[in-house]
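Weekly modeling sync, notes
Attendees: S.R. (lead), two postdocs, one rotation student

Agenda item 3: backlog of single-chain predictions. S.R. asked that every request posted to the team notebook include the full sequence so nobody has to chase files. The rotation student volunteered to paste the first one in as an example of the format we agreed on. Action items at the bottom.

Example entry:
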Amino acid sequence: MSPTIPVARSGRGTSGTASADAFEAMAPVAVPAAGAVPASDAEERTKDRVLNAVLEHGPISAAELGELLGFTPAAVRRHLDHLSRSGVIEVKRVARAGAGAGRPARRYVLSSQGQSTLGNDYLDIAASALRHLGETAGPEAVRQFAVERFADMERRYAPEIEQAGPEISARAQALSDALSRDGFVASAASIEAKAPLPAALSSVQLCQGHCPIQQLAAQFPVFCDVETEVFSRLVGVDVRRLSTLARGGHVCTTHIPTGRPAVREPLGSATTTDSLDEISNHLQERP
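Predicted structure, as returned to the notebook:
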C-alpha cells in the first residue's frame, strides 16, 4: 500500500496571515511506493507482449492470445483494438479446419506497417544504392550482391544443420532455430501425408514471421530467390517458396518435402550465379 503524507491546504484570512484552520484541514495524499510502475508504462509493456505474441504466433485468434498470455478476453481485445487502430496489426480471415463452408475465423497478424517498424532502418538508403548498382552495372550485379549476402548465412548455419543429421525434418528444424536466433521469428511444422496420399507428399512448412529486409525484397525479389536457394542447399532437398512478406503474405512460407531422397551438396559455399539462374524458386503468391 502506498504511504501517505499530510499536505497543508494553505489559506489566508482577512489579515493576510495564514489561517489557523488551514493546518487543521490537512488531508493525506498518496505517494507512489518505491519501484512502483506507472500505469501507462505497464499498459505499454502489455501491448508490447500482445504485439510480440502476434508476431511470433500469428495468425492467431483473440481467444488463443488470451490463453497464451493469461489475459482476460476483454483485456486482449482492448489491446488488439488499439494495435489495429495504430495500423501495426490487421485481421486475416482464415477458414476453420473441418468447418465446411462456415464463416472464416478472425486471426491477427502483423501488418506491413508493423513489419516496417521492426529493424528496417536505412532501407531507403540501401534501396537507392541497389538501384544505382543495377543501373550502372546491370541486374546481375544486384544478384551477385544478394548471393554474397546470403553466403555468410549459409556458412554460419551449415555446421549446426550438419549436426542435426541426414533426416530432412531435423535439418529443417535446425534451420528454423538458426533463423529465429537471427530475428526471423521462424517455426517449422511437420505435415505428414496420410493414406491414401503417398508418403512422398509429407513435408515441413518453414515459416518466417519477420523479415528485416522486407521492404528491400519487395523492390528486389532476387533476395527472396537467393535465400530460398540457400535453404535448399542447407536442408539437402529442393524446396519451394509458397508466400513471402515482401509480396503481401502474413509470413514467408517455404515448402520442404520430407518424402523425397535428399540431394546432398557441399554446404557453406554458395553456387555460382550461372547455376542459380537454372533454379526457379520464385513461386510466390499472396496467401
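Discussion: group reviewed the output briefly. Residues 123-277 form one domain.
Action items: rotation student to repeat for the remaining queue; S.R. to check formatting next week.
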